[in-house]
Write a structure and sequence with these properties.
The chain has twelve helices and six strands. The radius of gyration is 22 Å and the shape is globular. The protein starts with a helix and ends with a helix. Strands 1-4 form a two-stranded antiparallel sheet. The protein has a two-stranded antiparallel sheet with strand order 2-3. β2 (about 220-225) and β3 form a beta hairpin. The chain folds into two domains: about 5-145, no CATH class; about 145-210 and about 240-345, Cytochrome P450 (Cytochrome p450). With about 350 residues, the protein is mainly alpha-helical. Helices cover about 50% and strands about 5% of the residues.
């Protein structure tokens, strides 16, 4: 199986379920919506990561020489059309429930779109005012920021574990000691899995989901003797920082133990040597969600299966906005134990 492709479907389903109450696995129109969204996110990430001559040569600023802007506009138009239809479906469902005297809160789990529509329709709310365009942009941000980035992080972590079987073994022993091998790992177990959390941190150090952190200067600044004009676009190379031998001992070695020894090092932007989600007011808004999705799904993969591969897994990277793997991670999963009784009891 292609691990990366399956993980992309998984993370897309999580975001789709959270925002619109649909997943890629569903049959019919709703499942198709999630799959279309998955493809649009993938195509947008690939376009955003390609070299665009118009971004670097002022003379060609307003010329779409490579046709990239046209393709991106086409993707955004398809997204707008799909989300508009989903919004109308939610509005019709909400109207029907009100006509039947039902409350949104009674016996029903609301998705994010339901909550946003409540704010949009509430004309008495003076503190928060949402337009239809605001709702669409917010949903798009969630898909773009949380789908491929989480999937790629899990895939890189798993590739590192396969190439470092002693790390895989230690992580599996920790998980088995918590679950006693009679149930599937749960999110509530994560605080009791320090080595697993260290694996995630080590993966984010070597393979940050966004290797370049973009910022714009608000005023003239001087950095290391270089004068930075106001309103300049700056990029911080997080990928290089995570491999800097001045900061990290044996930086190219995958060694989660370094984060057991330095427990205080966090990935939420408080320590400048490790900030895969950025820092400050513009920190990634999906950091908390990613730190739930990545370790919980990685733990389930470690716990439930043995993974067979041919030879050593290539760690070659592919250029892009999120630095995906250059080659698909192809593995054969072999069940370690029967998980069905655990699922039936949930």
């Amino acid at each position: 199986m292609d691990v990366g492709a399956e993980l992309l479907s998984l993370t897309n389903s999580v975001i789709s379920r959270m925002t619109m109450s649909v997943t890629c696995c569903e049959e019919g129109g709703n499942g198709d919506d999630a799959e279309v969204m998955r493809k649009m996110v993938k195509d947008t990430a690939e376009l955003a990561g390609k070299f665009n001559v118009s971004d670097f040569i002022w003379l060609f600023k307003n010329w779409d020489l490579q046709g990239m802007n046209k393709r991106l506009k086409g993707i955004l138009d398809r997204f707008d059309s799909m989300i508009e239809r989903v919004i109308k479906e939610h509005e019709l469902a909400r109207k029907k429930r009100k006509e039947e005297g039902e409350s949104d809160e009674r016996g029903r789990v609301r998705d994010l779109l339901d909550i946003l529509l409540e704010i949009y329709e509430d004309k008495r709310n003076d503190e928060i005012e949402l337009s239809r365009e605001n709702i669409k942009a917010f949903i798009l941000d969630l898909f773009m920021a949380g789908t491929d980035t989480s999937a790629i992080t899990i895939e890189w972590a798993f590739a590192e574990l396969i190439n470092n079987p002693h790390v895989m073994k230690k992580a599996r022993q920790e998980i088995d000691s918590v679950t006693r091998r009679n149930r599937i790992i749960e999110e509530s177990d994560l605080p009791n899995l320090p080595y697993l959390r260290a694996i995630v941190k080590e993966t984010l150090r070597l393979h940050p989901p966004a290797p370049l952190l973009g910022r714009q200067s608000t005023e003239i600044s001087n950095v290391c003797g270089y004068e930075i004009p106001s309103k300049s676009l700056l990029f911080i190379n997080l990928w290089s920082m995570g491999r800097d031998p001045k900061i990290w001992e044996n930086p190219l070695e995958f060694r989660p133990e370094r984060f057991i020894e330095e427990r205080q090092l966090d990935v939420r932007g408080q320590y400048f040597q490790l900030m895969p989600f950025g820092t400050g007011r513009r920190v990634c808004p999906g950091a908390s969600l990613a730190l739930q999705i990545v370790p919980s799904n990685l733990a389930a993969m470690i716990q439930c299966f043995e993974w067979k591969v041919d030879g050593v897994v290539s760690m070659e990277e592919k250029p892009g906005m999120t630095v995906p793997r250059a080659h698909p991670l192809i593995c054969v999963p072999v069940p370690r134990f029967n998980v069905l009784p655990s699922i039936d009891s949930v």
